[in-house]
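All the exercises in this workshop are built on plain-text protein records. A record pairs a protein's sequence with a compact description of its fold. Backbone structure tokens are a discrete shorthand for how the chain folds in space. Once this layout is familiar, the rest of the handout is easier to follow. As an example, a complete record with its sequence and its structure tokens follows.
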Amino acid sequence: MTKTAAALTARALRVGYRDRLVLDGLDLTIAAGRVTALCGPNGCGKSTLLRTLAGLQPALSGAIDVDGAPLGSYRRRALARKLTMLAQFNQIPAGLTVRELVAYGRYAHGGWLRGLSRADCDAIDAALAATGFAGDASRDVAALSGGERQRAWIAMALAQQAPIVLLDEPTTYLDIHHQLDILRELRRLNRERGLTIVWVLHDLNQAAAYSDEIVLMRAGRIVAQGTPDAMLEPHHLQAAFGVTMLKTAHPLTGAPMCVPAYEGVIDAGAAAHGGGERPGPAGAPRGCGTQAETPDACGEPGMAGSPGPYRAQDACAASHPHGAPAASAAGAAFGTHVPAPAPSSQRDLAA
């Protein structure tokens, strides 16, 4: 079996600001042509790691290789042809249209002294189309909403056409419709062009759905790294975030997902109801709360120690016995398909 080449490697990496050590002896390998999500609590060093990999933050010690060569061996423009990074916060440029901003992504391919080539224009047009700006490229960047600005910055990063793309919380400011649009488009580019993508995501379920690997971090160190299915195991999430999470599966695709255990909420609800069955989330039908045993009151096996009996589709059906207008209303509001599964049984509705 041919081993996948490494796009980025970090060895014994130590990074700090003044008297605070942020990354402490970190080792990391990012496989080429794959999508890797960095996940972890606030302040664990995710953004610092991205900045250091991009050469924007000097390391106190350790080594970084980009496409097999030491990071320090690259000249600035040569490095820009290898990788691009979109920071979490970017200064809003004054007096620039969206197209002009996106054109800055072509600097690595020729500098400022020459005009835009046909290849430059094609790259700009493709980036604008990918981010939904094909018909709005003449708008002033300063007049855009926060979410629109984020999409404009992502377009600039895509126009650079570097094979390695680093993105610090690319879905910041975006509604769910545009979050999914951006994640799908980046995933498509990964598959079609072989882009290596490293992104910081706070939504673990989005990270699992759109990434090949997840890197869990805590306090400047890597807790675990592996497939989404492996990284959503409760013991890994407990080690990274310090909270109890439950692993489940997407009701339509079967893809791994996780939900918080909400231990305090469940315990308080059980006490209020005199023990026995604990209530499920708001809107869940009776008989679908958390049981002390694992059998599922709704007809499906639950997870030991988890609120497995509660199912989202049952709650939706119980609230809307003549269909699921809430699902269609959500789809209409955000422009995203929200399926409305049928109730698991009429018994659930009658309860």
User: Anything to note?
Assistant: The two ends are 55 Å apart (CA to CA). Residues 146 and 173 are 6 Å apart (CA to CA). The chain has 13 helices and twelve strands. Residues 261-350 form one domain.
